[in-house]
Design goal:
two-stranded antiparallel ribbon, alpha+beta, 39% helix
């Protein structure tokens, strides 16, 4: 599965945004090994001379970041091309583990 993520931000540097993207890639790879960036993040400055219209918000300017990523499934139960299903079930498992750990801490207190 391949996805393109577009973000329009105001404030923040390209370096900080790129570092955050790389950190998040490693975090997601810890529970979805087939998750990877297809290339470095792309940046474009959207100025007052050509603002973009965001439905429900209006015209905006800022730093547009484009992130191209791919998720290849582990192919345990589903085909490898079903990365979208793999990432959803993997994320659900991690979320459940975090929730259960928090509940155990509450019970111990």
């Amino acid at each position: 599965m391949r996805d393109t993520v577009f973000v329009l931000s105001q404030g923040g540097s390209r370096e900080a945004i790129e570092a955050s993207i790389l950190e998040m890639e490693k975090t997601v790879q810890s529970y979805v090994p087939g998750y990877r960036l297809k290339q470095k993040a792309q940046f474009e400055t959207i100025g007052d001379n050509a603002p973009v219209r965001i439905p429900g918000i209006g015209f905006c300017t800022g730093l547009k970041t484009t992130i191209l990523l791919e998720v290849e499934g582990a192919a345990h139960y589903l085909p490898a091309y079903a990365g979208n299903l793999d990432i959803m079930t993997s994320a659900a498992l991690v979320t459940a583990d975090h929730w259960a750990a928090r509940e155990l801490i509450k019970e111990a207190a």
